[in-house]
Design goal:
two-stranded antiparallel sheet, binds zinc ion, TIM Barrel, 9 helices, alpha/beta, binds D-xylitol-5-phosphate
């Protein structure tokens, strides 16, 4: 596979697969959220990742559609809305109306992807499916061809700032092989504990979309953090094609 850099500094492959960075606002200062959005955009973020938590599916509560709407009013970047909620079917209309670009729900949540995937698509937004660390990829395999994004969790969902679980790497390789085999252009996302080091490993394993919370918003400047992450994932992706 040939990798080249396009004009926006994003990496593309011969199959037009770009590497995209999505800062996770869960790690930003909520009292300065507008500034965080602006900093991420100025730093070259390709999308923003918004972690919705209901206190049932995960042991934490974050925010709902009102905050997604507020962020939407501040940026044109795609909003990748990660629904860590037990009953996604009840809320997809609200998150689509709030301005979400992609709604990512969990295969472990209530309801069947058979109904939820077309329901989300009918709202005019993209569809993502997430798998927890302990869930085998097989649980999502039958839906892969219907997705715009497959999100592999590399931490137990609920909190930012956790360490990357390396068992995500073979799962990424398995997912990359499956997506390539079926000719899917779906994003292969990695979420949790992504740093320059682990992001590079994830890129080498086939990830195309990198959710980055603490590594963007904690310590250093957002712009330089994003530049460092981008260099790292580009280098990692090159390792994959040797
Ligand atoms: C965890 C969330 C992640 C988290 C990432 O449940 O889904 O998106 O915010 O934060 P970091 O990159 O700090 O692990
Ligand atoms: Zn997330």
């Amino acid at each position: 596979m040939i990798y080249i850099l396009d004009r926006t500094r994003a990496l593309v492959t011969s199959a037009s697969r770009r590497l995209r960075l999505a800062p996770s606002l869960l790690s930003a200062d909520f009292a300065e959220l507008g500034a965080a959005v602006a900093a991420a955009e100025a730093g070259g973020a390709d999308a923003l990742h918004l972690d919705v938590m209901d206190g049932h599916f995960v042991p934490n509560i974050s925010f709902g559609p009102a905050l997604v709407r507020a962020v939407r009013s501040r940026t044109k970047l795609p909003l990748d809305v990660h629904l860590m909620i037990q009953k996604p079917a009840q809320y997809v209309e609200a998150f689509a109306a709030a301005g979400g670009s992609t709604l990512v729900f969990h295969v472990e949540a209530d309801g069947s992807p058979r109904e939820l995937i077309p329901k989300i698509r009918a709202l005019g937004v993209e569809v993502g499916l997430a798998v927890n660390p302990e869930t085998p990829l097989e649980a999502a395999a039958r839906w892969l061809g219907d997705l715009d994004e497959l999100l592999v969790m590399s931490v137990h969902p609920g909190f930012s700032g956790q360490s990357f679980l390396t068992e995500a790497l073979p799962k990424l390789r398995q997912a990359r092989a499956a997506l390539d085999t079926m000719g899917s252009n779906a994003e292969l996302s990695i979420d949790g504990g992504v740093t320059a080091e682990t992001g590079a490993e994830a890129a080498a394993a086939g990830a195309s979309f990198f959710v980055c919370g603490n590594s963007v918003f904690t310590g250093g400047r957002v712009e330089s953090n994003l530049a460092m992450l981008r260099d790292a994932v580009v280098a990692g992706a090159k390792r994959a094609v040797r």
